[in-house]
Design goal:
alpha+beta; globular; about 45% strand; Thiol Ester Dehydrase, Chain A
């Protein structure tokens, strides 16, 4: 499968996402999308994209959106609840999106989803703590 990544920006991150990535981002309709092209390294024993890969993508995407919402202040995940609705396969572009449902001075409450083409394969709800300097 040939994936068209024109319009996407590649991010070479450190840590876990550096091992999972590369991660891509694109601004669409005033919001952000985060993408990951599934490779052999992302598969489980059944030959499908591992749920941990999908969860890591959701966590990274929602964390980045929370960071932006909090005025580019670091945010850490407090809770992330994921539901898997369908499978993804090697060679597919997984696209994560999210939105803020509510924010307080110290917390950001969000929902997100991962899609492959027009199919939602996972949804989640997340809570992120804004980490402010003491």
């Amino acid at each position: 499968m040939d994936i068209d990544l024109s319009g996407w920006r590649e991010h070479k991150l450190g840590g876990l996402m550096g091992a999972v990535g590369p991660l891509f981002s694109k601004k669409v309709d005033g919001g952000w999308q985060y993408g990951l092209v599934a490779s052999d390294n992302h598969l489980n024993a059944a030959g499908l994209v591992h749920g941990g890969t999908i969860t890591a993508l959701l966590d990274q995407a929602l964390s980045a959106l929370a960071w932006h919402h909090a005025g580019k202040t670091p945010c850490v995940t407090v809770q992330l609840n994921s539901s898997f609705l369908d499978a993804a396969r090697c060679g597919e572009l997984l696209i994560a999106t999210g939105r803020v449902v509510r924010a307080t001075r110290s917390m950001v409450f969000m929902v997100g989803e991962v899609m492959v083409e027009e199919c939602t394969i996972a949804t989640c709800q997340g809570i992120f703590k804004i980490v402010r300097e003491p």
